[in-house]
């Protein structure tokens, strides 16, 4: 036992004994026995031995986080089902360790470690064929089986943030490690509805396959047609954040080998009861995608670099006395550049013919503490994502190679229909819902609905022989005309809670 603690414990025990003597009188004091203090010190020693402790007294340590679980009901136009207890990727379950220490009155140092859940079913991974969200296309166990058959997972999560920082009150903060990069700004959530209505369109239904008018499964997911859930990317970087000046904070970061960098300017203030939050950011990636085969002569290592840029801004307003709010964002990504190659950044699969893409979202509602337990927010939303799944020369979403016998290699899936020559895509999203804060429990309950409708346009070519299974195949031809492919709407209802600790 620590000597100082031992001495303090002894003093505490003696003081407690004296207090009892004073309170009960000298006659009762004799009844306490001679071993009262020893018993108390033994109990303190036991508590100390079973208590988690920091490694030192210099750096503070705070453990915080959240548990976020939801029930998802979905309808893809031909089938519907309910999945229970999923992790909600709108704001995943996670735990966080934070620390800070004062170097002097102006300078502080600290760290952050954030681990999010990846085990089991998550809302962005599940689909019509697998409620665990872990379809194994190349599993040696068989065709399209789940890694999670026995509900046993081999790992908990992965690192969202692992970084240290140093900050001067007058100069700003420098962060080094895995952290959010500076760049495109998405919706700033003044209404408190982000846990149910994320600014991304891919975090609830992204892995679900599109269904055709005849019930066929296309080898295309909703995530192929919307933003890739990428605002500021989380990478290994060095980031600078300025001090707050009149509500403005400027941020810049450079990541990896200097091939990913960005800038961001954010603003927050309040005027006459109107709360304002805004931001704008720009980012660029020239990072080469690492090929499967490591070969120093491979053009993926030494050939042309990608040159992908994106920018986006957001504006949110809330009238505090009434609780009325409106918030939204716009973002766009530019993929086209001479010699451009794909690196997967901002959904850039498709190479030099990838079309520029954009997305916008507007949300509005009212958030007010009507019931005395915390803010109740009622909202509606409308947004659109354009050309995330399109190429100027037509993008092919081919039915995958048929599975034969194990071991399977690459993508393995049977009876998915092909969509080829896609030159335009548009996804419209609208939704309504509510969230209820429970301040006494640091929790939020919610229920929300989103409708996703897609327009997929290709160049008309040959007609499939089995039109009852697939619609006429759309292929690229030099003189082909544009043709819209019938796609069913997708409906999602999520209800659940996020509990913070």
Q: What does this protein look like?
A:
There is one protein chain. By secondary structure, this protein is mainly beta. It has two domains: 1-51, no CATH class; 52-500, Porin. Helix content is 9%, strand content 43%. It is built from four helices and 23 strands. Strands 1-3-4-7-8-11-12-13-14-15-16-17-18-20-21-23 form a 16-stranded antiparallel barrel. Strand 9 and strand 10 (217-221) form a beta hairpin.
Short summary of the structure?
The protein is mainly β and 501 residues long. The chain is built from 4 helices and 23 strands. It has 2 domains: 1-51, no CATH class; 52-500, Porin, CATH 2.40.160.10.
User: In which range does the helix fraction lie?
Assistant: under 10%
Mean pLDDT: 81
CATH topology of the largest domain: Porin
The shape, in one word, is globular
Radius of gyration: 28 Å
Residue share in β-strands: 35-45%
Q: What is the count of DSSP helices, taking H or I runs of 4+ residues?
A: 4
Distance between the termini: 30 Å
CATH architecture type of the largest domain: Beta Barrel
List segments where confidence is low: pLDDT < 50 over at least 5 consecutive residues: 1-33, 136-154, 407-411, 461-479
What is the CATH H-level superfamily of the largest domain?
Porin
What is the top-level CATH class of the largest domain? Mainly Beta
């Amino acid at each position: 036992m620590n000597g100082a603690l031992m001495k303090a414990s002894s003093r505490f025990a003696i003081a407690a004994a004296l207090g009892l003597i004073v309170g009960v009188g000298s006659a009762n004091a004799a009844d306490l026995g001679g071993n009262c203090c020893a018993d108390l010190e033994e109990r303190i020693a036991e508590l100390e031995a079973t208590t988690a402790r920091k490694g030192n007294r210099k750096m503070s340590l705070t453990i915080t986080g959240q548990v976020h679980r939801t029930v998802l009901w979905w309808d893809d136009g031909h089938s519907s089902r309910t999945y229970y207890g999923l992790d909600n990727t709108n704001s995943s379950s996670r735990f966080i360790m934070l620390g800070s220490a004062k170097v002097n009155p102006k300078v502080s140092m600290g760290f952050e470690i954030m681990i999010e859940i990846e085990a089991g079913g998550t809302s962005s991974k599940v689909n019509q064929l697998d409620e665990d969200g872990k379809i194994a296309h190349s599993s040696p166990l068989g065709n399209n089986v789940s890694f999670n058959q026995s509900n046993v997972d081999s790992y908990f999560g992965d690192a969202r943030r692992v970084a240290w920082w140093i900050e001067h009150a007058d100069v700003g903060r420098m962060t080094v490690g895995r952290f959010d990069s500076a760049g495109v700004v998405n919706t700033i959530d003044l209404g408190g509805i982000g846990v149910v209505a994320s600014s991304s369109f891919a975090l609830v239904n992204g892995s679900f396959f599109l269904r055709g008018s005849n019930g066929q499964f296309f080898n295309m997911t909703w995530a192929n047609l919307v933003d890739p859930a990428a605002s500021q990317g989380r990478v290994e970087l060095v980031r600078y954040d300025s001090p707050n000046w009149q509500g403005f904070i400027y941020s810049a970061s450079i990541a990896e080998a200097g091939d990913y960098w960005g800038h961001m300017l954010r603003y927050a203030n309040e005027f006459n009861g109107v709360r304002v939050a805004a931001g704008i950011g720009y980012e660029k990636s020239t990072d080469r995608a690492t090929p499967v085969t490591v070969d120093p002569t491979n053009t993926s290592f030494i050939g042309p670099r990608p040159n992908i840029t994106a920018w986006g801004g957001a504006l949110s307003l809330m009238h505090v006395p009434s609780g009325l709010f409106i918030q939204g964002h716009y973002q766009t990504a530019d993929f086209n550049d001479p010699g451009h190659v794909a690196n997967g950044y901002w959904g850039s699969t498709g190479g030099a013919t990838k079309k520029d893409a954009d997305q916008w979202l507007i949300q509005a509602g009212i958030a007010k503490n009507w019931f005395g337990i915390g803010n109740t927010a009622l909202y509606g939303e409308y947004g659109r994502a354009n050309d995330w799944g399109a190429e100027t020369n037509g993008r092919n979403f081919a039915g995958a190679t048929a599975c034969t016998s194990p071991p399977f290699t690459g993508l393995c899936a049977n009876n998915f229909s092909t969509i080829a020559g896609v030159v335009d895509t548009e996804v419209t999203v609208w939704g309504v819902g509510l969230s209820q804060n429970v301040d006494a429990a640091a929790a939020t309950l919610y229920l929300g609905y989103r409708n996703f409708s897609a327009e997929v346009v290709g160049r008309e070519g040959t007609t499939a022989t089995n039109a009852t299974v697939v619609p006429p195949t759309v292929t690229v031809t030099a003189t082909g005309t544009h043709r819209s492919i019938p796609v069913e709407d997708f409906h999602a209802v999520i209800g659940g809670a996020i509990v913070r600790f």
